[in-house]
Amino acid sequence: MGLRWWRNLCVVLAGVLLFLHGFCYSEKAPNYSFLKEARHAPPDLYYDYIIIGGGTAGCALAATLSRNATVLVLERGGSPYGNPKITNLDSFFANILDNSPLSPSQIFISEDGVFNTRARVLGGGTALNAGFYSRASSDYVRSAGWEERLVEESYEWVEKKVVFRPPMLQWQSAVRDGLLEAGVLPYNGFSYDHLYGTKVGGTIFDHQDHRHTAADLLEYANPRNILVLLHATVEKIEFRLQGGSKPVAMVVIFKDKAGTRHNAYRKDSKSEIIMSAGAIGSPQLLMLSGIGPKAHLEAHGIPIILDQPMVGQGMADNPMNALPIPSPRPVENSLVQVVGITTFGSFIEAVSGSDIIRSWLRRPLEHSFNASEKALSALMTAAVRGGVILEKIEGPISTGHLNLRSTDPEDTPYVTFNYFKDPEDLRRCVDGMRTVIEVINSKSFSDFRFSDIPVQVLIDLMVNAPVNLRPRHLGATISLEHFCIDTVMTIWHYHGGCHVGRVVDPDYRVIGVDGLRIVDGSTFNGSPGTNPQATVMMLGRYVGEKILGQR
Q1: Does residue 263 carry a pLDDT above 80?
Q2: Conformation bin of residue 7: beta by default, left when phi > 0, alpha when psi is -120 to 50
Q3: FRET pair for 466, CA 20 to 30 Å: which of 153, 235, 252, 447?
Q4: pLDDT at res. 368
Q5: Which residues pair with 325 in a beta bridge?
Q6: 182 Cα distance to chain centroid
Q7: The pLDDT of residue 392 is above 60
Q8: Which DSSP symbol is given to 474?
Q9: Residues 278, 325: Cα–Cα separation, whole Å
Q10: Residues of 138-151 as b/e, b for ≥16 C-beta within 10 angstroms?
């Protein structure tokens, strides 16, 4: 009895010591001692884990692995800290549509003619997005084959650091009540869970309207075990080839802002290289490293490491369609706080406020985006005091592909999403837009719209404003099908290109090679929940725990 008691006491004391160790050595954002410019890195580095991309998944993964191993994070962008465009809620559109050379947002146009962007900043998409936090459905978790207990713990780990309850002022409250009036029932109150009906979700903006990002999860990191290099652009991964055995990922070649090349090596046979470069960056980098469709790689003069035709396939982006609503009364500045989760596969959300809309109008863009600039100016001038109600479809079912533009890693590849190629996606959009119209026409929302401006005027405004580069159907103002196709925009929830079961196995190891994993949204077969950031951060923590358990 005494011996058993003594053993239990030792276990408890060991746990306390581990907790105090982690507490004593943790650092608070933004004062990370391990955050460095890549130009200060030595020519050669050796680490247990080399993570390519300090984004939504990468930060969570790095913080977790650093507990018991050395970790190097290579981030092609800069720090989110000290940038008011990133921090302040009112600057949301100014931030995401900033096309300056040092912007955290890299704007591109998909082959579908839709304006889009990809993050180039520590924290990834969490430094750009509208902040809404909502978990994946229980069905999604089960279909992914994840352990539900560890998923729950991983979500909670994220939520303790970066998630808040939104204030819910007048505009968002009117949208909530309008959704209920439109039949998006029941009302589920405040919840992180994915539940049919209308709910208030979490947000990564705190009560001072300041953004928190995945970079804040690095507060969990052991600073003695981690190095995060900024402006470190990875060019390729090199492999060791031995006879008939699998290629082994050995070294990551990256360059700093000055163009100087560096080599990051796996420390030993247990070490790994992990790609967390996102749904565009990860398939792109696999191809640049010689893993992808053989003919496509040969066309770019890339030596073949592994002929893998599924790399870059299954690219998907959840289409968004919206209506601007001018308001006869002032409205708060708000990003997404409420969601209507319908039973027919559409999610309804809203943003509001003159400061947010003006930041959209005033953003500086290159001459190549003049059409978009004029379009959005025309669209939003009427709604400078008001907001936007949007719908996004779940899934989607329609998918496309990604092809290299060049062998330059800084060139965004050609990306085709094939919006609404599947008729079920189009049906979901039409039903979603009908719900948006019902919300606008609801009694609950009546204080925030001009009674003498019918919804048809708002539809006409959207159709006639070139919010994308797609052609217009003659009947787009009277057909919701044509309206969806013609005015489609992105909500920046694209995913795929390195799917589980096609490119990576269930443990996220790249099939056909050793020493390489992919942990990010490129592995998703569908977008999780209403907004994916919660699940992408969770995934970084989840896989990190799995790896440490196997180490």
Answers
A1: yes
A2: alpha
A3: 447
A4: 40
A5: 387
A6: 30
A7: yes
A8: T
A9: 33
A10: eebbeebebeeebb
For residues 211 and 204, is the Cβ–Cβ distance under 8 A? yes
Beta 233-240 vs 248-255: how paired, if at all?
A: antiparallel
pLDDT tens-digit profile of 10-66?
Answer: 444 444 444 444 444 689 999 999 999 999 999 999 999 999 999 999 999 999 999
3-state secondary structure of 281: helix
Q: What is the C-alpha separation between 457 and 267, in angstroms, rounded?
A: 63
- 493 flagged as catalytic: yes
| Beta strand segments in 86-196, E | 105-109, 115-119, 132-133, 187-190
Cβ within 8 Å of residue 122, ≥6 positions away: 35, 54, 55, 59, 75, 77, 78, 79, 80, 213, 215, 228, 230
Its sign, for the CA torsion 464, 470, 473, 476, is: negative
- pLDDT value, residue 31: 96
Residue 23 pLDDT: 44
Set 212, 262, 401, 493: catalytic member: 493
Total number of residues shown for the chain: 551
Cα torsion through 393, 395, 399, 403, rounded to 10: 100
Please give the single-letter amino acid code of residue 457. V
Beta strands in 176-334 (DSSP E): 187-190, 197-200, 202-203, 226-230, 233-240, 248-255, 261-266, 272-275, 291-292, 306-307, 313-315, 319-326
Contact 494, 416 (CB under 8 A): no
With CA atoms as reference, report the closest residue to 122 among 158, 82, 175, 93.
82
Asked if 316 contacts 392 with a C-beta cutoff of 8 angstroms, the reply is no
pLDDT tens profile 445-486: 999 999 999 999 999 988 987 789 999 998 888 999 999 999
Q: Look up residue 75 and give its two tokens.
A: 């981030």
Rounded Cα–Cα distance for residues 481 and 490 (Å): 17
Q: In the predicted model, what is the mean pLDDT of the chain?
A: 91
Q: How many CB atoms lie within 10 A of CB 227?
A: 20
With H, G, I as helix, E, B as strand and everything else as coil, classify residue 198. Answer: strand
The C-alpha R_g of the chain, in whole angstroms, comes to 23
Which distant-in-sequence residues (6+ apart) come within 8 Å of 43 by Cβ?
Answer: 261, 262, 263
Q: How many CA atoms lie within 13 A of 6 on its CB side?
A: 3
Closest among 360, 398, 352 to 380, alpha carbons compared: 360
Q: Looking at residue 4, what is its pLDDT?
A: 52
